[in-house]
Write a structure and sequence with these properties.
By secondary structure, the protein is α/β, with parallel strands linked by helices. It has ten helices and nine strands.
Amino acid sequence: MLAEAAGEPAPAEPRRIEPDPPRAPSEASRLPRIGDPAPAAEEEEPPLRRYAQPFENPSRKPLFSILLQDTGGPLLDREALAALPFPVTFVIDPQAPDAATAAGIYRAAGHEVLMLASGLPEGARPADAEVTLESAAAALPEAVGLIDLPAGGFQETRPLSTQVVEILAAQGRGLVTHDHGLNAADQVARREGLPAAVVFRRLDEGEADAASVRRALDRAAFKAAQDGRAMVLGDTRPETLKGLMEWSLEGRADGLALAPATALLR
């Protein structure tokens, strides 16, 4: 009353501040709680794709894949092999003591690696394949596939071949076999949809010299022209490498698309 009589305005009543209603936490901001399901892990690409060498063939030339089996030894210059000026897929024995070192050198240069199907005991059963291939994959985790032994391997035995194909499918790797005998492994792989390829010819059977290697390459090139693709296998021995380089420098590969193994496994 005194304030009003004096002409002064009456003091305002204090304003009540109402708290905001609680909001449900969003899925993006809510912290995980005990009992929440674990987030789904992103699916990784299989080794066949993850470690494949980039390859393009815009001219649609016949595919020609060269495999070289690492023979090891103190005289083998792996850095020089890794510097080859065209795609080469290196075959490595996973039981070799320096298998990981060899794979690291070739992979650092961008080349693909296949693991050799070594270590299967004589008369191996399907159960033996699982142990052997798990060990091989652990030794060479960046291998894009498995290649059977040139002789005495598993590809002639259907039950063993079936088990090998199942294991490779689970690992996400392809299969390379050889063009001889029944080759049940290739039959099973194609039936099951596993990426597979067959070596048409060895380049250096019988300790062939460089001239013989060039002739073998010419025959394989003719096969590629007929079928659209061919795969050859040689050792990292001096005469084989000499023949391969001479063949390439002579322009014999001009009508071909030199390709990594995965180009044929696709």
